Amino acid sequence: MNGEIQTDEYSISISREIAVCKNMINRQRKNLARFEKQYDISSEKMIIDGSLKIEKSVRDMNEWRNEYEGLLAWRQRLQEYEKAYNALKH
User: CA distances (Å), 49 to each of 10, 13, 64, 65, in order?
Assistant: First the structure.
């Protein structure tokens, strides 16, 4: 019985973390969409073409890159939490 309660608590905690990850991913997608619209280029293209010469704010480019890297990190965390959650359920 104690094992079931502990597993339920883990599931609840992991579910909360999954929700946090999804919220952060959505927030970062919105921020990236703003840059993509402003500069008319996808985030992936901007990152891949690191030498891209956008004659706007270097600060914007750094913020854009940080948002994109943050998105990738939150996606990774989400995958890890989902994997742990699925392992508890099986």
Answer: 42, 39, 13, 12
